[in-house]
Amino acid sequence: MRAAFLNQKGKSLTIGEVDIPEPTQGEILIKVNACGVCRTDLHIVDGDMPAPDFPRIPGHQIVGEVALSTVAEFSPGQRVGVPWLGWTCGFCGYCNSGQENLCDSARFTGYDLNGGFAEFCVADARYCFLLDSNLTDLQAAPLLCAGLIGFRAYRMIGESNKLGFFGFGSAAHILLQVALYEKKDVYAITRTGDTVSQRFARKLGAKWSGGSEEKIPVELDAAIIFAPAGELVPLALSSIRKGGAVVCAGIHMSDIPSFRYEQLWGERVVRSVANLTREDGESFLKIASEIQLETVVKSYSLDHINHALDDLRLGRIQGSAVIEI
Ligand SMILES: [Zn+2]
Ligand SMILES: [Zn+2]
Fold first, then answer.
1. Residues paired with 32 in a beta bridge
2. Which ligand sits nearest to residue 148's alpha carbon?
3. I need a labelling partner for 287 at 20 to 30 A (CA). Which of 20, 81, 175, 325 fits?
4. What residue spans of 36-160 are helical by DSSP H?
5. Residues 239-260: what's their mean pLDDT?
6. Which ligand has an atom closest to residue 276 CA?
7. How many angstroms does the Cα of residue 145 sit away from the middle of ligand 1?
8. What is the per-residue DSSP string for 139-186?
9. Could you give the C-alpha distances from 161 to 84, 113, 216, in angstroms and in order?
């Protein structure tokens, strides 16, 4: 089969041939139809995160068809999705308290395990989701990480009505739809001068959008930071009311500059969100189908995967980038 390999950090992916993997007991073999490109893929390729074992096939927003199953829960032909969380130990304190996302031994798709930038992949069936959504494979792929981990961040903000989304890419354009469905107002904050993303956010229903240098017209109840820029943390903190939360939704962020204690005072909270649990996935996919969530995607062939990564790095994508296999 053909696949995209990361052989060294900081280097482009290379396309090559490798044997189709064989599923062991408990796994399913999936014929991949689409795999979303996530900012985490960029962090892995660029070496912002500890290097995986090489060569590694990245990609953790996989949509495909079961080709071979070793378990009763899945049968050939079914459409499945594979997320970032690929395996957990099942017995540690985190796994036993509903926090499998924090399991110290967790393995992640496209990082510790080969992922979906390939014609086939294997996955532990216990972490796969059956996809019955009416979305096409291309449109469904971004739900598997941008949607799902974005949703975990969204649930962390609690009862809030005026939400700030800092960074308006793949995850934000999905979560905006959930927020609107729940009758919340979204204020989208983008890079200075990124009028394309600002217009995109307003078109999708954001109450307001503007650059990070502009004054947000209201005091926010909570903020989610999707962009990997640490300087947004003090900015977001200064934008929220007392008791409000700032949730950092990315897996990597540049250093956070120091800020005055008054910005945190008043029971404001700063927290991160790490990975996902299977429960996050099930809840999110249920809501996504209830509200008939749609995604805006830009598709690339496997041969153009480095082009897709560059476009994401340079902020040239509205919505989500997806590799069509
Ligand atoms: Zn991701
Ligand atoms: Zn565990």
1. 64
2. 1
3. 325
4. 39-46, 137-140, 146-155
5. 97
6. 1
7. 5
8. HHGGGGTHHHHHHHHHHTT-S-SEEEEES-SHHHHHHHHHHHHTT-EE
9. 29, 39, 15
Percent of the chain at pLDDT exceeding 70: 100
Ligand 2 is an ion; its neighbours by CB within 5 Å are: 88-89, 92, 95, 103
pTM > 0.90: yes or no:
yes
- Relative to the alpha carbon of 89, which ligand is closest? 2
Ligand at minimal distance from the CA of 99 is 2
CB–CB of 117/59 below 8 Å? yes
Residue type, 175: L
Please determine, for residue 321, whether its predicted confidence score (pLDDT) is greater than 90. Answer: yes
Please name which ligand lies nearest the alpha carbon of 43. 1
List pLDDT tens digits, range 96-148: 999 999 999 999 999 999 999 999 999 999 999 999 878 999 999 999 999 99
Strands 185-190 and 208-211: parallel
Domains of the chain: 2-143+296-324 (3.90.180.10), 157-272 (3.40.50.720)
